[in-house]
Amino acid sequence: MAAAQERDYYYQARLLIRNAKTATLATGEGGMPHAAFVTVASLADHVPVLLLSQLAIHTRQLQVNPACALLIAGEPGLPNPQTTPRICLSGTAVITNDPAARASFLERHPYAAGYADFADFAFWNIVITEAYYIGGFAAASHLAISQLIGPQ
Question: Are 123 and 106 in contact (CB under 8 A)?
Fold first, then answer.
C-alpha cells in the first residue's frame, strides 16, 4: 500500500471515530453472539466511550466476557452501500469513572444527562487491540493501534 494512501486511511478512520454518534456493538458470551445499536462518543485520543445499561443483553455479556467489536460506519458516497466508509474496532470493554469520558459522551449526547446517573448505567471505554478500516469498495487495511489512537 502506498504511504500516502495509508496515511489517508488513518486520517479517515480517526474522522469516523471522532464524528460517530452511533455504532454497532458486537458481544458474545457462552457461544451466543449479539449485536446492538449503541450511542458512542470518543475521547481526545480517539478511544470510544459508551454509556450502557446493565439491563441490556450486550452489557450483561460484557460483564462476563469483555471482548467485543465496535463497528462505526460513515455515510455512503454512492448508491452502492459497499462504498460506505467504516471501521471495526476490536478489543476489550472496561467500565470507566474518568470524568473526561463522561464529559465527552454528554457533550456528544446531551439528552443522556437525564439518565447517565441512573444506578444501572455506566460509562465504558473500548481498549482497542485491532482496527480494520474499509474506505469503500477495494479500499481496506488493518491499522496499527499505535498510529490510530492518540491525539493526532
Answer: no
What is the residue-level pLDDT of the chain in tens, covering all 152 positions?
455 555 699 999 999 999 999 999 999 998 889 999 999 999 999 999 999 999 999 999 999 999 999 999 998 878 888 889 999 999 999 999 999 999 999 999 999 999 999 999 999 999 999 999 999 878 899 999 999 997 76
Question: Are the C-beta atoms of 54 and 120 separated by less than 8 Å?
Answer: yes
What are the cell numbers at 39?
450511542
* Nearest Cα to Cα of residue 25 among 53, 51, 58: 58
For the record, the C-alpha cell of 112 comes out as 443522556
Residue type, 89: L
Count of positions (residues) in the chain: 152
CA 29/CA 94 separation, integer angstroms: 16
- Rounded to two decimals, the pTM is 0.92
Q: How many beta carbons lie within 10 A of that of residue 97, not counting itself?
A: 8
* 122, HSE (Cβ side, Cα atoms, 13 Å): 16
For residues 139 and 35, what is the distance between their CA atoms, to the nearest angstrom? Answer: 25
